[in-house]
């Protein structure tokens, strides 16, 4: 019989936007305000096309839509706007805080793996219960962003772990592709954008009602 210690996943690698916190509406509001300030229109549909992208990719798309600012300035402006909104109110996704607390109680470390930049990610981490996260990989610190496997490979490497022993939680297509390519036990939790069911792909409706027991079960199945 397997004991719990070896049945546990080594770590949980969390995407941030749309998985831990619901900041997508904050980004769309920031994009809309910036475009409107320059006399340009912007729709929620356009904003949803950006979900899971690297920020610089989104900034270039906004430039293509007519925004005449340097891409780096667009990123800084959007991020500053979203950080302000987060400081006012952090919209955690259903079940996220409960799962974080249970993982902490069970001694399973969490690492944030996000395409958002470090200042924004740190603003979110600081609004979580103390010591919720053992590490952070942010979008401004990787050479290739999601859907490349690098972010999740780095997330596991931060703690010296094999990606195959880590669970990754993701809501976006690029993010889930990145986690799968890195060889993690990748769980897709679609939020704004549907994720395509495929043989072997794990999809959950929500983190609500999900706990360490569910992660142990998946880890055991993958290890078998």
UniProtKB/TrEMBL annotation:
Gene3D superfamilies: HAD superfamily/HAD-like (3.40.50.1000), Putative phosphatase, domain 2 (1.10.150.240). InterPro entries: HAD-like_sf, HAD-SF_hydro_IA, HAD_sf, PGP-like_dom2. PANTHER family: 2-DEOXYGLUCOSE-6-PHOSPHATE PHOSPHATASE 2, PSEUDOURIDINE-5'-PHOSPHATASE. CDD domains: HAD_BPGM-like. It comes from the Bacteria. It comes from Brevibacterium linens ATCC 9172. This is Haloacid dehalogenase superfamily, subfamily IA, variant 3 with third motif having DD or ED. The lineage of its organism: Bacteria, Bacillati, Actinomycetota, Actinomycetes, Micrococcales.
């Amino acid at each position: 019989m397997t004991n719990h210690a070896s049945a546990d996943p080594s770590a949980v690698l969390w995407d941030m936007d749309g998985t831990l916190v619901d900041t997508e509406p904050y980004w769309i509001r920031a994009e809309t305000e910036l475009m409107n300030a320059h006399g340009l229109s912007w729709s929620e549909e356009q904003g949803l096309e950006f979900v899971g992208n690297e920020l610089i990719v989104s900034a270039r798309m906004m430039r293509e839509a007519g925004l005449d600012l340097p891409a780096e300035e667009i990123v800084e402006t959007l991020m500053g706007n979203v950080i302000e909104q987060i400081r006012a109110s952090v919209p955690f996704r259903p079940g996220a805080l409960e799962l974080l607390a249970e993982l902490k109680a069970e001694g399973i470390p969490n690492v944030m793996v996000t395409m958002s930049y470090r200042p924004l990610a740190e603003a979110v981490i600081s609004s979580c219960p103390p010591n919720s996260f053992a590490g952070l990989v942010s979008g401004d610190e990787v050479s290739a962003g999601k859907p490349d496997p690098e972010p999740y490979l780095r997330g596991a490497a931060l703690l010296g772990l094999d990606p195959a022993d880590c669970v990754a939680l993701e809501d976006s297509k690029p993010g889930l592709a990145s986690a799968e390519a890195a060889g993690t036990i990748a769980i897709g939790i679609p939020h704004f954008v549907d994720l395509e069911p495929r043989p072997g792909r794990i999809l959950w409706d929500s983190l609500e009602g999900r706990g360490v027991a569910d992660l142990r079960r998946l880890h055991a199945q993958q290890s078998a």
